[in-house]
Every structure is written in structure tokens, then in C-alpha cells.
Amino acid sequence: MSDLLAQIEEIEGAALGQVQASADLDALRDLEVATLGRKGSLTSVLRGLKDLSPDDRRAAGQRSNDLKRKLQEAIDRRRAALEEAEVQASLEKDRLDPTQPGPPRAYGHPHPILAMQRELAQLFESMGFTVMDGPEVETEYYNFEALNIPSWHPARDMQDTFWLKGGGVLRTHTSGMQIRAMQERGAPLRVVALGRVFRNEDQDASHEHTFHQIEGLVVDEGISVAHLKGVLDAMLQGVFGEPVTSRLRPSYFPFVEPGLELDFECRICKGKGCPTCKGTGWVEMCGCGMVHPNVLKAGGIDSERYTGFAFGLGIDRLTMMRYAVPDIRLFMSGDLRFLEQFHTG
Ligand code: FA5
Description:
This protein is α+β, with helices and mostly antiparallel strands. The chain is built from 11 helices and 9 strands. The strands form 2 sheets. It has a 7-stranded mixed sheet, with helices on both faces. The chain has a two-stranded antiparallel sheet with strand order 2-3. Adenosine-5'-[phenylalaninyl-phosphate] binds next to strand 5, strand 8, strand 9 and helix 10.
């Protein structure tokens, strides 16, 4: 009996210390097997109980069961502590801080002409205009004939044209949209149409073969040049963020009567005269006028009842003025050193 108790005490003395000393889960599992396992030290002690007297057996049995429970509890506690330490170690190793900013990414940004188009569209929408889209490949009818420019008319020479095989034409201006708008929507009408236009033109600092226009058209009862001037001045104020001095002067386009040209005071020299405004102090910005009755008729509108104004503005030149860009060709140069100056993000 005393032998057995001595063995139990020895196991207790050694094993409890070893549980605490187990450095990892594998070592702890080995210890568990070596003490409490089927062939473990405590198990084999228990097997010896059968040779004892009933009283000794009860006393030694209780003692060894107490130890078994104590050991099992100590092992379970140690296991939980080791598992927790393992989780902490792996969190430490694969540390993720979701509040850290990500690596910088190279974002693109709208081309300055596109940004200006969007701004203009928004500006006119805020004045109650509808924004329309139309084809870049036009028919001769919409680009010229319906605009009071028959094929024999010398005004055709004002816009040198890219003709396509089969009779189509790369639109030379956005004015064809006047007819499409009137035909599609009738009167009263308040629309703008923006987009690319094309001319067979020699390039220089203010001329491109591919550029952008915004066409405006208002048709209603009692529309006058005063409305035209008011809308164009509101547009200039919107674009430049302050009132801009402008003037209307007579001009000629077959699809308006009277025909006018809007100039505004040169933003670079404030009207004093500089190379950009060719010393005049004024910059020519858009053709405009009162819609010719023939054009209203081509659009299916009663020219006795309704009048209208129209304008066609060069968006590239407006953008040049806003940012003091000296040469229109920079826009299509693809030169990122130029374009990245317009990165606002
Ligand atoms: C026209 O295109 C007429 N359709 C404008 C119009 C509309 C008049 C409605 C009356 C009523 P013009 O050819 O002048 O007109 O061109 C209008 C504007 O486009 C010019 O004032 C200028 O700002 C711009 N523009 C013309 N040619 C070029 C070019 N080659 N490169 C860049 N911008 C140009």
C-alpha cells in the first residue's frame, strides 16, 4: 500500500511541474499520454489497486482519482493557455491594420476638354436646357441643306469638309443638331448638343482638324437677341466664375438672320491687347443669331408663331481661355506633362 501511495506522490510531484513546463501543445499531448494514457504512469498505478485490501484500495483509489482529476485540469488549463499564445503569435506575425492607408494608386482623370464639356452640360441643365447627343457622321442634309446651305451656296466653302465614301460627312459643326432637335421635340424648345466636329483644316495655334463645339437652341414665342445675350453671358460667368465683358457684332451664317458673333474681353490681357487676342483686346468665341425662318420650317416649326436663337461655341478655345493655354494642339498631343496639370483629384 505505502509503495503505491509513494508512486502516486512521485507522479504528482513530477507531472504537475512538467505540465507547467510544457513549451508547446505537442509536448503537452505527449505528457498527457505518458501519465493519463492507457499505458501511462498513473493508469498503471491504478491497475495495481486490485492487489490491495478493500480499505487500502478505497483510500489509494480516492487518492489516485483526485490526482487524475487534478492532472487533467492542469493539462486542460495549460492547453488553453498554449492555444491562446499560439493565436496571439500568429496574429502578431500576420498583423493587419485596416486603418492604414493602402498603397498609392495611379488614378486617371478626365481630359480638360471632356471636363469642360461636362461642366457646360451641367451649367445649361441648371438653366433648364435639355442635353442632346447626335451622330458624328452626318448626312449632307442635316449638316448643310436643312441649314439653308444648298450645294451651290458659297457658304459651303466656309467649312472645308471630310466627305465619306457613300455620301456621309464628318459633321463640320454641331448645328445639324438644331434640325434634329426641332424634328424630334417640336416647339417650345431649349436644348444644347455637345461633341466632336471635324474640318479639313491646316492646324495652327488656334485651329485643329478635330475640335469640339456646343450648340444651343431656344425656340419659343417672343424669343429675341436679348435672350441670346443673357444666356451667353450667364454661361461665361459660370465658366469664369465672375461676370465677363462681352459684345455681339454682326456676322454671317446662312442659318441665322441676323447673324452675330460673340466676342469677350481677352482674359489674358484684360482687354489691353496681347498676342493671344492679336492686339484687339477681344476674343472671338462663338457664332450665333436668330434662327432663320427657313431653318425653323425645315425643323417642322411654325415660323410665324415662333422665333428662336442659336449659337455654336468652340469648347477647345473656351478651355484655352480659361487656363491660358497658348496652343490648341496641346490638347490632342497626348503629352502627359501637359495633361497632368489638369489632375484635380
Ligand atoms: C459654326 O460652326 C456655326 N455652326 C456656329 C453657329 C451656330 C452660328 C449657330 C450661328 C448659329 P464657326 O465656323 O465660326 O461657326 O465655328 C464656331 C466656333 O468653333 C468658333 O467660334 C471657334 O470657337 C470654333 N472653331 C471653329 N473652327 C475651329 C478650329 N479649326 N479649331 C478650333 N476651334 C474652331
